[in-house]
Design brief:
The protein folds into 2 domains: 4-209, 3-Layer(aba) Sandwich (Rossmann fold); 220-386, Rossmann fold, CATH 3.40.50. The chain contains 18 helices and 14 strands. The protein has helices spanning 11-20, 27-37, 52-67, 85-99, 115-122, 133-141, 158-163, 167-176, 192-201, 232-240, 260-272, 286-298, 308-311, 331-338, 359-369, 382-387, 393-398, 400-403, and strands at 42-45, 76-81, 106-109, 126-131, 152-155, 182-187, 206-209, 220-226, 253-256, 278-280, 303-306, 321-324, 348-354, 374-376. The chain has a 7-stranded parallel beta sheet, sandwiched between helices. α2 (27-37) runs parallel beside α3 (52-67), α3 (52-67) packs across α4 and α14 (331-338) packs across α15. The chain is globular and about 70 Å long. Bound molecules: adenosine monophosphate. Adenosine monophosphate (AMP) is lined by residues 22, 24-26, 29, 48-54, 315, 344, 413, 415, 440-441.
């Protein structure tokens, strides 16, 4: 198996990897690092969770070390564009870890914080800047920053940037960076608009792909409930209370809604039932979003409700379940959502709640992503629970499953990948994932045996709270 020291990286970078405890490159790192070190442009088709940050950061740091230029006034030598504040902050944290021993200065600028502070901190320039496109252009328009010294340009989650309406920003930025530069372009999906962008940004890029275009990660078991819109909350309560036979321990549950309002409503309802949860969405301030993420990461709250925009690219180890409380109207978004689980070599469970009004979304998701969702039945007494007259109502309100369970936080950022924490399957369902030693994140995953699928038959089988 290839080790990092066989890829041509410098000693300071190898030392930084050693400190992080990484010895074996992930597939995208193995494929991307050598050509990037040679100075080639790169097109990486990969989701977060595959180790792509290190795949571009490590060789880029060595490129910067090799060119050894001074830090430019009001500019940067490497620019990383990311769609959201959270992702930008996450990349900045990695860049600091990897770049510290190489002596590189790393800064991040994101919306929702003081522009004046950003202006001051960028005045003397930086080696590496991680930015969201909007804030970057604000500073450029104010003549507080320019892109004339950029040697390496990275676009991370380019498809998400387009979805967020950054196309004009990206076109402008392309005009402002020097023609002579290296471009590393990452996207989880490859719609036509992205292909066009690639052809404008990259020169003869080496293409590296670790998850086939528009397919869903294969270590994720995907389930589907057909459920009335006004019964979704009751179904969620039931699942969180452990009263439906959903596979796996609900260690960390990420719930998606389409709207900010919808996210707040779910939080409110859960709170009414004594279940602690937080929401992240565009109406929350940056510190609120960060706090919610931190609490979720640490396991202080086991449930996080998010809109697509807010959840983009965030890497939270140990998300056991993703619940699509409302289906996304953009099919590719489904891939992004469920990709929040099954990180770092683990398995994961994704559950979709499809209302009558969402059937067309479901059809698109299946068609575009090839997702295979096993239909689960609602429990027999479900109607009664919804109407509040059923025998299970008090227990559902008690919400024993999630709120009382102690979560032991796993070490952040360290894939365990040894199969521990693997969701348990309902009777008869059997995992046949061929083990991947080392438990590296991402990569070419082995399709698991779906034999005995269908599940749901035993709806409502109570489970040990700490199983
Ligand atoms: P990313 O796709 O860049 O968000 O990375 C996903 C997770 O994998 C992060 O928590 C990284 O710290 C971790 N990671 C990246 N590369 C490796 C590696 N070679 N070995 C183990 N873990 C890694």
């Amino acid at each position: 198996m290839t080790q990092f020291d066989q890829l041509g990286l410098s000693q300071p970078v190898l030392q930084a990897l050693d400190l992080k405890g990484y010895s074996t490159p992930t597939p995208i790192q193995e494929q991307a690092i050598p050509p990037v070190l040679e100075g080639r442009d790169l097109l990486g088709i990969a989701q977060t969770g595959t180790g792509k940050t290190a795949a571009f950061m490590l060789p880029a740091i060595d490129r910067l070390r090799a060119s050894d230029n001074n830090i430019p006034f009001k500019s940067c030598r490497m620019l990383v564009l990311a769609p959201t504040r959270e992702l930008a902050m996450q990349i900045a944290a990695s860049a600091k870890d990897y770049g510290a021993l190489a002596g590189l200065k790393v800064q991040a600028i994101v919306g929702g914080t003081s522009v004046n502070k950003d202006r001051n901190k960028l005045h003397r320039g930086t080696d590496i800047l991680i930015a969201t496109p909007g804030r970057l252009l604000d500073l450029i328009d104010q003549k507080a920053f320019n892109l004339s010294a950029v040697e390496v340009l990275v676009l991370d989650e380019a498809d998400q940037m387009l979805d967020l309406g950054f196309i004009h920003a990206l076109r402008r930025i392309n005009q402002l960076v020097p023609k002579e530069r290296q471009t590393l372009f990452f996207s989880a999906t490859m719609p036509k608009a992205i292909k066009e962008l690639v052809s404008n940004y990259c020169r003869n890029p080496v293409q590296v792909s670790v998850t086939p275009e528009s397919t869903t990660a294969e270590r994720i078991d995907q389930y589907l409930f057909m459920v009335q819109k006004d019964e979704k909350q009751a179904l969620l309560d039931l699942i969180l209370a452990g009263r439906h036979d959903i596979p796996g321990d609900l260690e960390r549950v990420l719930i998606f809604t389409r709207t900010k309002h919808g996210a707040d409503r779910v939080v409110k309802k859960l709170r009414q039932r004594g279940i602690d949860s937080n929401a992240i969405h565009g109406n929350k301030s940056q510190p609120q979003r960060q706090r919610a993420l931190d609490e979720f990461r640490r396991g202080k709250t086991q449930i996080l409700i998010a809109t697509d925009v807010a959840a983009r690219g965030i890497d939270i180890p140990g998300v056991s379940h993703v619940i699509n409380y409302e289906l996304p109207n953009v099919p590719e978004q489904y891939v992004h959502r469920i990709g929040r689980t099954a990180r770092a070599g683990k398995d994961g469970v994704a559950i979709a709640f499809c209302g009558e009004d969402e059937r067309a979304y479901l059809k698109d998701i299946r068609k575009v992503t090839g997702a295979e969702l096993d239909r689960l039945d609602l429990p027999e007494n479900f109607r009664a629970v919804v109407e509040g007259v059923g025998p299970t109502k008090p227990e559902v309100r008690g919400a024993t499953r999630v709120s009382k369970k102690k979560v032991r936080p796993k070490p952040a950022g360290r894939p365990t990948g040894d199969g521990s924490g693997k969701p348990k399957k309902p009777g008869g369902k059997h995992h046949a994932r061929k083990g991947k030693p080392g438990g590296r994140p991402g990569g070419n995953r082995t399709r698991r045996d779906k034999g005995g699928a269908g599940g749901g038959g035993g709806g409502g089988r109570p489970r040990a709270a700490n199983a």
